[in-house]
Amino acid sequence: MYTKYIPDGFWNSHGQGLYPSHEAICVINPYPEKIEIKLTLYFEDRDKMDGFSVSVEAERTLHIRMDKLLNDKGEAIPQDTPYAIKVECEKQIPIQYSRMDTSQAMGLCTTII
User: Fold this and answer.
1) Which of 83, 88, 90, 99 could lock onto 9 through a cystine, CB 3.0 to 4.6 A?
2) What is the predicted pLDDT for the residue at 112?
């Protein structure tokens, strides 16, 4: 199992204009078979949230929109709450994290993990 961490997650509830604030974990599966990705969220002031998982088809990319993701209990990621993300996959894959903050003038931050 390959594990990577994204320590600075934050989904802002405030937005202006047509574009909602959101985050995305962008991955590519360069392998000839489908892979499964598990996500676990860690917080400063509450227990972790797990049960988030996605499949990425063979030789495809996927933009995992965190504002649309539900875990196996039907729980969404809380807004306006700092968190960190553990990304687990059975194979090593490229990961990019992006945050679109539209609470003021549109801002985008992105990083390759």
Assistant:
1) 83
2) 66
